[in-house]
Design brief:
Layout (H helix, E strand, L loop, with lengths): L5 E6 L2 E2 L11 E2 L4 E19 L2 E18 L5 E11 L2 E12 L6
């Protein structure tokens, strides 16, 4: 029986839920998205964040541990970032919707 490597994923300090209103996580261009993963298990794990075909961050952590990364986009748009955790032949991926708007709402 394999255990989950990722206990929880947070986006902008809120537990990530793909079914939640995207407005909750949305950022204005130039403001960072904060991606965090609370990891379980033993040994070490390789963690990576990819978006639009590019690896944004790759690191190795001792388990259990917390992975944290901030990414900022200069222009508006909707992107899918993939958080991947691998340890001892086991791998787990989570897709995160990163929605950036051009300007902050007024009012």
């Amino acid at each position: 029986m394999s255990n989950k490597l990722v206990k929880m994923v947070k986006l902008n300090n809120l537990q990530y839920n793909a079914n939640r209103d995207p407005q909750v996580y949305r950022r204005v261009a130039g403001h960072p998205f904060r991606i965090q993963a609370m990891l379980e298990g033993q040994g070490s794990a390789k963690v990576s964040v990819t978006c639009e075909g590019k690896t944004l961050k790759e690191s190795t952590l001792e388990l259990p541990g917390i992975f944290s990364y901030e990414v900022t986009f200069k222009d508006a748009g909707i992107r899918i970032a993939t958080l991947t955790v691998s340890s001892e032949g086991q791998s787990e991926s989570h897709d995160l919707l990163l929605d950036t708007e051009a300007h902050a709402k007024v009012g």
